[in-house]
Design brief:
Elements: H1 10-27, H2 31-45, H3 50-62, H4 71-74, H5 85-89, H6 92-108, E1 110-113, H7 121-134, E2 139-143, H8 148-153, E3 171-174, E4 184-185, E5 188-189, E6 200-204, H9 222-232, E7 238-242, H10 253-262, H11 277-292, H12 301-308, H13 310-319, E8 320-321, H14 325-331, E9 342-343, E10 347-351, H15 362-371, H16 388-395, E11 397-399, E12 404-406, H17 408-429, H18 431-461, E13 485-486, E14 492-493, H19 499-522, H20 529-543, E15 553-556, H21 560-578, E16 582-585, E17 592-593, H22 602-609, E18 628-631, E19 646-649, H23 656-663, E20 675-683, H24 687-698, E21 702-706, E22 712-716, H25 726-736, H26 743-746, H27 758-770, E23 782-788, E24 796-803, H28 806-809, E25 821-827, E26 832-834, H29 839-850, H30 858-867, H31 875-889, H32 894-897, E27 919-929
Parallel strand pairs: 1-7, 1-8, 2-3, 2-6, 6-7, 9-20, 10-20, 15-18, 15-19, 16-18, 19-20, 23-27
Antiparallel strand pairs: 4-5, 11-12, 13-14, 16-17, 21-22, 24-25, 24-27, 25-26
Helix pairs in contact: 3-27, 3-29, 6-7, 11-12, 15-17, 15-24, 17-18, 18-19, 20-21, 24-25
Length: 934
């Protein structure tokens, strides 16, 4: 029975006081009851530590929903997982990620681990795999071909395998193997794989499957085959996906990855609050597009979270594990992991092409590139007008479920645009690579002109032999037609073409290409200014390392041609002049090194380059160490190379994500280096002008994005894809001249880490285990006082409220996933700093405020007691509470709210809050500014 009641007049107060005194006097004859009451009052009014109040709020928010993350409940001890090598190697935040992933795999059938670059997603996945193997589950790993060696090493009986004693037994296939019906992938015979017998499928770089391809002429795409043969057929298959960029391009990209979890069932998450996955992602995309259109000062992450809606929040929260580097530093600390290395400001180098100054500027070369017609790659451009319809019918592709047609003529023009971009990029990479590319194109032009001449001679001899053949009747795979056809995948009958116009354009191309080729051939290594400047930087780095004794550096280039050129002109020089060994890694089987006894496979080279990070056994120490690694992007993902402290981008990738992924090889947990250095080579011109070159080369065209799946993905320039937005790239590249930025900072909106609650569930589970019964016994309205020294956590009060009665039955927002619990952060001035729609951000603030504060903050509590006259004057707090409730229900009922601060609830009548709402204060945190007030 409640002994608390509000009084609003002196008469009521006098009457209530007399009543209370009479009740108190009765207790004199019952000492035990009196002591119990005093103990209860002390419990209600006693000082509490901030971390307990943080845990209490989590308890109210998550416990009754059955969403606590109890490691003992989720990870079955009988499996023996905690005794494995891989489990023992995990940091605390990684173990939390594994527990969360296993829980989601059990509850929902799938999970996306979206931790940022450098946080060890591979080892987290290996722990999940081992857990399932210990339960006798059969596991398949699907990975990009370039990462295959990463995964196969951990299951091999190999001295370099640090997990050898765990005896992993999963199968490994490449993404591209899904397109093959037979043949071998490693030791697996693809013709006899029992696809439907896998209990767990791990998809590394799962964003490669973000686009559900449209099949051509009834063919089954890789995406479809994965869905049909592995996920839907046979045993129930759980799906674990790994991706640092699961929503890199569009928010809706997540839908196709989620479909692997739900087996394509749009309503699979109905009982978890998502009525339609498709409509949820579509609504979120529309909201995101509206947010993008706002002025820069309005585009805050908090506003985007509100606009995206609770459904999308819930969807991500159910299926993703996502932590960023900042997240780990803020919430886990660096005592266990060690600090990330500090990033020195990037070194930016602008080199000329030719030391002799005879080669044209990149700007002038680009003018020549733009005038190339590249006619040998666009035969359809020259098909006679009355013949075009037949080619359209034969080769055009239906897209977007048949809504429109993508014509082969358009595809060819897109290819031409991309080839122009490629020539420009090779020019920027190295004059050597540029010469090779132009030389190859010159050969293609000569070969095409020869074909035209040969056809003319054949026609003169036997003019009528194939004159009546129509392209629709041609079997392009029939070798008997080969002499009459040109083109590569798309074949065109020579008789259907305007050969005169084609020959004119080819001749013009030949003249331009020959001029460019001759000029490029003149710039040998001795005149290559860019190569010379790289050599100077390498020598300076080796002689003056930024970390004592560390001479290691990686040089990245986008092109294997450039990588081989650099190796040819640096390896012997580095050995004789600097006494360091060099290796070349291109991913094409042409690896090399200056250490004759070292094996040329990828694992051997990378282990020798980064023996500490790769945990090379002492028995292999005789292999020696590499200090200079020249590589293509075949190692830009999935590799731990943090022994190294210098990374050079010899050519700048237009997509800033790729630059950050490259740097992520050395910007990782466990680095022995205090600081690390990024070096960028830029074209010798203003960046603004350089980026305009891409705009002029590519124009407003349709891009063919040849993704890592190897399949064509049609992306239009106006698709809303920020990674294809030139203005967006311009801003990010400008930033990269001054500082190294994190991948999550590239998103022009909200990071996926802002939308999940997994870490909070784990915090709650740990507290419950360490303090059994404590939270359950805390009274309603429990509070703590804390001091903020963090500019991101302003002073004020954070309230945790629960809707009661009719308000609980009819939520403020039916899509709000945390009802009937609401969190609101109100500032000292009475403004709402974070409304209930920003629950994740409020919990972030609570956690940052409470971490490490396991004892009451005596100084802050004393300051608060003085300000409130030992709790007698709670007017300010009541006013802030009124604001909090008003922000939820839209009305400010101050009179009724006054009694909310007293245990026993409110005297407000039902319906007094907007007709339905009534609230209980479950817990609250007073946040005082760091500097004590007078």
């Amino acid at each position: 029975m409640s002994l608390i009641q509000v009084s609003e007049s002196p008469e009521e107060a006098t009457s209530l006081t007399a009543w209370f005194d009479s009740q108190w006097s009765v207790l004199s004859s019952n000492p035990e009851a009196r002591e119990a009451l005093l103990a209860a009052l002390h419990e209600v009014a006693g000082q509490r530590d901030p971390f307990s109040i943080y845990a209490l709020i989590l308890y109210h928010l998550l416990y009754n929903k059955g969403e606590q993350m109890d490691e003992d409940r989720i990870v079955k001890a009988a499996t023996g997982i905690r005794n494995t090598v891989v489990w023992k190697k995990l940091y605390k935040f990684q173990r939390d990620g594994v527990v969360g992933a296993i829980d989601k795999l059990e509850r929902f059938g799938g999970c996306i681990i979206a931790d940022s670059v450098g946080l060890g997603k591979t080892f987290e996945a290996l722990a999940v795999i081992k857990y399932h193997e210990l339960r006798n589950d059969r596991v398949l790993v699907l990975c990009p071909k370039r990462l295959r060696d990463n995964w196969t090493l951990y299951k091999a009986n190999d001295a370099r395998n640090v997990l050898a004693t765990d005896r992993f037994n999963y199968d490994v296939l490449n993404h591209t193997d899904l397109s093959r019906e037979n043949g071998h992938s490693g030791d697996i015979d693809l013709g006899h794989v029992n696809w439907g017998n896998y209990d767990l499928v791990v998809i590394d770089e799962s964003h490669n499957f973000r686009n559900k391809k449209t099949p051509k002429q009834g063919a089954e795409t890789r995406y479809d085959r994965l869905m049909r043969r592995i996920i839907r057929e046979g045993v129930k298959t759980r799906v674990l996906m790994l991706s640092a960029t699961p929503v890199n391009n569009r928010l809706a990209d997540l839908k196709n990855q989620i479909a692997f979890v739900t087996e394509g069932d749009d309503t699979a998450l109905l009982e978890h609050g998502i009525s339609s996955i498709d409509s949820t992602t579509r609504r979120a995309q529309k909201a995101f597009n509206r947010w993008l259109d706002l002025a820069d000062e309005e585009k805050t992450p908090q506003l985007l979270v509100e606009m995206l809606g609770f459904d999308y929040f819930t969807l991500l929260d159910h299926l993703t594990i996502a932590r960023s580097r900042r997240h780990i530093e803020k919430y886990y600390g660096t005592a266990e992991t060690g600090r990330f290395p500090s990033r020195l400001p990037p070194i930016n180098i602008k080199a000329d092409v030719d030391k002799a100054g005879e080669f044209q500027s990149i700007k002038r070369i680009n003018l020549e590139i733009r005038q190339l017609k590249l006619a040998s790659y666009a035969p359809l451009r020259y098909v006679k007008e009355h013949k075009l319809a037949a080619y359209d019918e034969k080769y055009s592709t239906a897209i977007r479920g048949g809504e429109s047609i993508f014509r082969q003529v358009d595809r060819e023009e897109s290819l031409i645009h991309l080839m122009r971009v490629n020539v420009l990029k090779r020019m920027e990479s190295s004059v050597y690579s540029f010469a090779l590319t132009v030389g190859r194109q010159l050969k293609d032009v000569d070969a095409t002109l020869a074909r035209i001449e040969a056809h003319k001679l054949a026609k003169d001899g036997e003019r009528d032999e194939f004159e009546e053949i129509d392209i629709a009747d041609v079997d392009v795979d029939d070798p008997s037609f080969e002499p009459l056809l040109v083109g590569r995948k798309v074949k065109v009958l020579m008789d259907d073409m305007d050969l005169l116009r084609w020959r004119q354009d080819l001749t013009e191309d030949r003249n331009r290409l020959a001029t460019l080729y001759a000029a490029a051939q003149q710039v040998d290594a001795s005149r290559d200014d860019k190569l010379g400047k790289l050599r100077e930087r390498i020598a300076e780095k080796v002689r003056n390392p930024i970390n004592a004794g560390n001479r290691k550096m990686i040089v990245f280039t986008a092109f294997a041609d450039t990588a081989e050129y650099l190796y040819a002109h640096l390896a012997d020089w580095a050995k004789t002049q600097l006494n360091i060994d060099t290796a070349l890694v291109t991913g094409s089987g042409r690896n090399r090194s200056t250490m004759p006894a070292l094996h040329k496979d990828l694992a051997s080279i990378l282990t020798s380059f980064s023996p500490r990070a790769k945990e090379r056994p002492a028995s292999l120490a005789h292999e020696g160490e590499l200090d200079l690694l020249i590589a293509t992007d075949c190692i830009s993902e999935g590799q731990n190379l943090q022994d190294c402290d210098w990374l050079v981008n010899y050519d700048i990738h237009w997509n800033p994500v790729r630059i950050i992924q490259r740097f992520g090889r050395i910007d990782r947990l466990g680095s022995p280096n205090t600081s690390i250095q990024l070096v960028n080579f830029w074209p010798n011109m203003e960046l603004e002008e350089y980026i305009k070159l891409e705009q002029r080369v590519s124009g407003r065209m349709v891009l063919l994005d040849i993704s890592a799946t190897g399949e064509e993905n049609i992306i239009e320039q106006q698709s809303g894809d920020p990674m294809n937005d030139l203005e967006y790239r311009r801003k990010q590249l400008l930033k990269l001249q001054d500082a190294v930025i994190d991948l999550e900072d590239l998103s022009s909106g909200v990071s996926i880490t802002d939308l999940t609650l997994t870490d909070f569930r784990i915090d709650l589970a740990r507290y419950l285990k360490a303090h059994p019964g404590k939270l359950e016994g805390m009274p309603l309205g429990a509070s703590a006082v804390a001091t903020t020294h963090d500019a991101d956590v302003p002073a004020g009060i954070i309230f945790c409220l629960r809707a009661e009665g009719a308000a609980a039955d009819k939520a403020v927002d039916p899509t709000y996933p945390l009802a009937p619990i609401y969190l609101v952060h109100v500032g000292e001035s009475g403004s709402v700093l974070l409304p209930y729609t920003q629950a994740k951000y409020i919990l972030d603030r609570l956690k940052r405020l409470s971490m490490g504060r396991d004892l009451p903050d005596a100084g802050a509590t004393s300051r608060h007691a003085r300000a409130t006259r030992q709790g007698e004057d709670m007017g300010h707090a009541q006013a802030l509470l009124a604001t909090a409730v008003a922000s939820i229900v839209g009305k400010n009922e101050e009179r009724a709210l006054a009694s909310l601060f007293t245990p026993g609830g409110t005297h407000a009548m039902k319906g007094e809050f907007a007709g339905m709402n009534d609230f209980e204060v479950l817990a609250w945190m007073v946040i005082l500014p760091g500097a004590a007030s007078a």
